[in-house]
Amino acid sequence: MAVVAAASSMGIKRRKVVAKTGNEINPHIPSYVSSAPWKGACDNCGAMTHNVKECTDRPRKFRAIWTNKNIAPDEKIERFELDYDGKRDRWNGYDAALYVHVVERYEARDEARNKYLKDQQIKKLEEQNTNKQNVGGGVDDDHEEIEDEYSSHYDPKTRSMREDPLPDMDPNDKFYINDHTTVWGSWRNNHQWGYRCCKQLIRNTYCTGAAGIAAADQAGAI
């Protein structure tokens, strides 16, 4: 090595050059540094994506690890000639149409989730209705079965059916508060609502009858 370097320095022998770039090779660089190490590649074909156990090529008599020739890479390396902006484009090579599959996946998940929650809610309501049914040995919930509050006189505190407090009352008669015979809003005067039976404009007052009507007529005449 020293003899080659001395001869090259004296111009007697030209140094080796790189075939692609044409640059001279420094003779002082060790061979284990100048030559690329054979790490991770297939010993048979030289591909970098698999090892010799996974190689599908025909076993060679002289493997690529020794000859470093006839390398058969099975990966495809795409090379793009991009400009200044193209090299710095963060969305380069992204296809927006692929995002449709992401949206469809999330929509399917939400639809399945809503269907599951709806089924669980229906199942819960069915269980509640089943528990409310009166079975043998259960509790008699008469207050839940009574739909018309005036049909029976049920006391929820003592859970007992009491007698009718008004046996002589006509069931078709209407109940009015404070001795009135009409409801509030049955009479209107000067854009105000009142009772027709006594012509009072104040709500929830006691009925004055004919005296109230006379007083209202007298006040209107004034």
Automatic annotation (TrEMBL):
Give me any GO biological process, just one: mRNA splicing, via spliceosome
Compositionally biased, Acidic residues: which spans? 139-149
Q: Where is the Pre-mRNA-splicing factor SLU7 domain?
A: 82-146
Q: Which UniProt keywords apply?
A: mRNA processing, mRNA splicing, Nucleus, Spliceosome
Q: Does the keyword Nucleus apply?
A: yes
Query: Mostly located where?
Result: nucleus
What are the start and end residues of every segment in region (Disordered)?
A: 125-169
Alphabetical GO CC annotations of the entry are: spliceosomal complex
| PANTHER family documented for this protein | PRE-MRNA-SPLICING FACTOR SLU7 (PTHR12942:SF2), STEP II SPLICING FACTOR SLU7 (PTHR12942)
Give the transmembrane ranges: none
Q: How does it assemble?
A: Associated with the spliceosome.
Q: What is this protein called?
A: Pre-mRNA-splicing factor SLU7
